[in-house]
Amino acid sequence: MTPTKQPIDFLIYLILFGSTIFVNKYVLSVLNFTYPTIFQGWQTLVGGILLRVLLSNKCLSVSATDLDKPGFISLLPSFLFFSAGIVASSKALANLSVPVFLCLQNTLGAMLYLMEIAPSFRGGSGPVPLLASLVTIGTAVAAVLADIDMTFSDSPYFWMLVYLACVAVQTLHSKIADARYTDVDRLYFSYVFSVVVLAPASLYLEEAFEVLHFPHAMRYDFYAGCLLSGVLGLFLNLSFMKVRRHNFFSIVDASGRLLTSLLALATFADVTTVTVKMLVCINLVSAVFVPLPTPKDSDVMDEANEPLKEGV
Question: Is-contact 284 233, C-beta < 8 A?
Answer without folding.
Answer: no
